[in-house]
Amino acid sequence: MFTMGIDIGSSSSKVVILEDGLNIIAAEVIQIGTGSTGPKRVLDEALSKSGLKLQDMAKIIATGYGRSSVEESHKQISEISCQAKGVFFLVPSAKTIIDIGGQDVKAIKLDSKGCVKQFFMNDKCAAGTGRFLDVMSRVLEVSLNEMAEYDSRATEPATVSSTCTVFAESEVISQLANGVAKENIIAGVHQSVASKACGLAYRCGVEEDIVMCGGVAKDLGVVRAISKELKKPVIVAPNPQTTAALGAAIFAFDEVIGANK
Amino acid sequence: MSRIETIISELSSISNNPKKAMEDYKKETGKGAVGVMPYYAPEEIIHAAGLLPVGIWGGQKSISKARAFLPPFACSIMQSVMEMQLEGVYDNLEAILFPVPCDTLKCLSQKWKGTSPVIVFTHPQNRKLEAANKFLAEEYRLVREKLERILDVKITDEALTKSIDIYNENRKVMREFVDIAAAYPQIIDPIKRHAIIKARSFMEKSKHTAMVKELNSELKSLPVEDFTGKRVVLTGIMAEPNEVLEILKENGFAVVADDLAQESRQFRNDVPLGPDPLYRLAKWWQEFDGCSLATDAKKSRGPMLIDTVKSSKADAVVVCMMKFCDPEEFDYPIYYRQFEEAGIKSLFIEIDLETTSFEQTKTRVQSFSEML
Ligand SMILES: Nc1ncnc2c1ncn2[C@@H]1O[C@H](COP(=O)(O)OP(=O)(O)O)[C@@H](O)[C@H]1O
Ligand code: SF4
Ligand SMILES: [Mg+2]
C-alpha cells in the first residue's frame, strides 16, 4: 500500500511516497515553493520516478506553509506535527528538533514516544532563516552548496547581526568592502543563524538527541555553529529537506491502518 | 432572530463601531465622551460626570504617519493609537484620561498629537503600602478636578459612589458571563465572546450590564451540550484582531476564561467598600494582582493562571503576546516556567495589529491543536 506526503513550503516543494509505512519509494524536492509551479512539478517527478499514479495512493496528506492549497490531498496536518513524525521515524532517539526552512525557524520538543511536547517558531522576521542565507549567498557570490566549505576555512568569524536581515546584509556588504575574508564573513553568517535558532531551542528546553532538518540543515556550517552554541552534538536528519513530507506520508499510512481496524 | 442573537449582534456592532456608539450617546443624553487610555483608569469618575467613557484600544491598521514619532520597536497597539491620533480619530473626545503604567505610555503621554486635552496621572508601583493608596487617591482627586474644569461639571462624592456601584454590578455580571459563556461554546464562540466583552469599553455601563444580564439568563435556560473541541485560557494585553480569534475557532478552540488586560483583568476585582470613593478607587489598584503592569514581587500571575486553568477546566493557555510589549515579554519566562512545572501546556502567538497575514498564527494554532 502506498501513501504520499506533500510538503509545500515557502521556498521548496517536497513529495515523499511511502510503501507500507516503511519504505521510502520516492523523496523529491523542487527548490521553489507555494504559489509556483513547484508543487505540480515535484508531484509529477515523484510519480514518474516511482512509476506510480496518483490513484495508487491510499491516502495523501499535505503539510507546510502552502498546505491548504494542495488539491490532491485528502487532509492537511501542520508541519510541526509532520516534522516530528518524520524525524522520529528516522532518528527515534530525537528529543529536540531544529527545523530551519525558507522563512521560518522552529524548535520542537519531543517526548520519548515522539509526540510534540512543546514548540516555538520565529516571529515574522526573516533573520536566521533560509531566506537570510539566500540573501547572503547572493551578496557574497558563494553558492549555498559551498557555504560550509568556506566556513571550515574561517580563521576569525566576523560579527553578523541576528536581528534583521536587511541590517545584516548591509553589515556584510561593508565588511566585504573593508576586505574581510569571505570565509570569516560566512562563519559569522552561520553564527548569526545559529543564535536565532538556539534562542528558540533554549525556550523549548534543549534535550539530546538534537536533530536538525529543513533545507538549511544541508548547510553543515550552520549545523556546526548550532552544535557549538549548544555545546552538544547535533545530528542531521537523513535527507533533511524531506522530513516533513515523510512525516505526512507516515500520518497518511497511520490513518489508513486505523481506518482498516 | 432569537433574543440571544439580537443581543449579541447589538453588542457586536457597538464593539465594532465605537464612533457610532459615541454619536448615539450624544443624541440620547446631549453629552459627549471622554477617552480612556489603557490601563486601569478610574472610569467611574467620568461616568459620575455624566459623560461616556470610551476605551482607546487602537485598531487593525497599517502604520505610516506614526513612524515619524515612534521607534519601530514601540508596541503594536501604541503604533496604531498614534496613527489614529494623527488621523484625528480621537479629536471629538472632550478629554482623554491617560495612565502611564509602562514606559511606552509614559513617553507617549508626553506627545499626544490629537487636539483633546489630556489628563495624565500615575499609578504608584510600590502598591502595597498605605502611602501608595493615599498617593493614588490624591492623583484621582486631581483627575477629578481637571475633569470638572475641562467639562465644566461638578463631580460629587455621591455621584461617584453611585457610579462605583454601577461599575461593580457590571463587573459581577461580566464575571458571571465569562463563566456561563464557557459552558456554551457552541453559541458564544471566541469572536462573539470578545465582542460582548469589548462592547463595555464603549457603553454606559448600566446599559451594558442590563444587556449582558439578559444574555446570561437566556443562555442559562438552554441545555448544556457536549463540547468536543479544546478549552483554552487567553492571557496577554488583548486578543485582536478578529482573524486571530477566527483561527482559534476554526481549529476547534473555545475560550473558557481569560487574563487579558482588555477583558477580565478589568473586572475580576470589584472596587472595595469604604467611606471615601476616591480612596476606594485607589484601593482597587492596591488589591489588583497578576498583571504585568502592576508591580508584584510575588509574581502571582503564573499561580493565578494555573488556578484559572483548573477552575475553568481548561486544556491549555494561549499566550497572546502583544508585539514589542516589554512588560508582557518580561513576565512571560516567569509564568512559562511555572506552567512547565505544573504540567500546563501553552501556546505563544504574536499579536500584531498591523499585520494582514495570519499564516504563522494558523500554523501555530493548528500545530497546538494537534499537540493537545
Ligand atoms: N544545498 C543546500 N545547501 C544549503 N542550504 C540549502 C540548500 N538547499 C536549500 N537550502 C536552504 O534551504 C532553504 C529552504 O528550506 P526548506 O526546508 O525547503 O524551506 P520551506 O520548507 O520553508 O520551503 C533555502 O532558503 C536555502 O537557504
Ligand atoms: S503595556 Fe505593553 S502593549 Fe501596553 S502600552 Fe505598554 S508596552 Fe504597549
Ligand atoms: Mg518547511
UniProtKB/TrEMBL annotation, chain A:
NCBIfam families linked: CoA_E_activ
Keywords: Hydrolase, Iron, Iron-sulfur, Metal-binding
Enzyme Commission code: 3.-.-.-
Descriptive protein name: R-phenyllactate dehydratase activator
ATPase BadF/BadG/BcrA/BcrD type domain: residues covered: 5-252
Oligomeric form and interacting partners: Homodimer.
GO molecular function: hydrolase activity; iron-sulfur cluster binding; metal ion binding
UniProt xrefs under InterPro entries: ATPase_BadF, ATPase_NBD, CoA_E_activase_dom, Dehydratase_Activator_Redct
Top class in the EC scheme: hydrolase
Gene3D superfamilies assigned to the protein according to its UniProt record, in alphabetical order: 3.30.420.40
Keyword Oxidoreductase: no
Cell inner membrane is among the record's keywords: no
Origin species: Desulfosporosinus acididurans
Cofactors: [4Fe-4S] cluster
Pfam families attached to this UniProt entry: BcrAD_BadFG
From TrEMBL, chain B:
GO MF annotations in UniProt: hydro-lyase activity; iron-sulfur cluster binding; metal ion binding
Cofactor (UniProt): [4Fe-4S] cluster
Highest taxon in the source lineage: Bacteria
Signal sequence annotation: none
Keywords: Iron, Iron-sulfur, Lyase, Metal-binding
Gene3D superfamilies linked: 1.20.1270.370, 3.40.50.11890, 3.40.50.11900
Documented EC number(s): 4.2.1.-
InterPro entries: FldB/FldC_alpha/beta
Family matches, as PANTHER family: 2-HYDROXYGLUTARYL-COA DEHYDRATASE, D-COMPONENT-RELATED, SUBUNIT OF OXYGEN-SENSITIVE 2-HYDROXYISOCAPROYL-COA DEHYDRATASE
Family, per entry: Belongs to the FldB/FldC dehydratase alpha/beta subunit family.
Identification of the protein by name: R-phenyllactate dehydratase beta subunit
Organism, as annotated: Desulfosporosinus acididurans
Name of the coding gene: fldC_2
